[in-house]
Amino acid sequence: MDLLSTIVSLCKRRGFIFQSSEIYGGLKSAYDYGPLGTELKRNIANEWWRSMVHTREDIVGIDSSIMMHSDVWKASGHLSGFSDPLVDCRNCKERFRADKAPKKSPGEKISYKKLTGENITTEVGACGYVCPVCGSNDLSDERQFNLMFKTSVGPVDPLDEAVAAIEGKNLSKKELRGILEEVTRKSAVYLRPETAQGMFVQFLNVQGSMSMKVPFGIAQIGKSFRNEVTTEKFIFRTVEFEQMEMEFFCEPGTQIEWHKYWVTERLNWWRKFSNNPNSFKAREYEKSELAHYADACVDIEFEYPWGFDELEGVASRTSYDLTKHAESSGVKLQYFDQQKIDPETGKAGLRYVPYVIEPAAGLTRAVLAFLCDAYTESEGTTAEGEDKKRVFLKLHPRLAPIKCAILPLVKKDGLPEIARSLVDKLLGKGISVKYDEQQSIGKRYSKHDEIGTPFCVTVDYETKENDTVTLRDRDTTAQERLKTDLALERIEKSLLS
Question: Structural domain tally of the chain?
Answer without folding.
Answer: 3
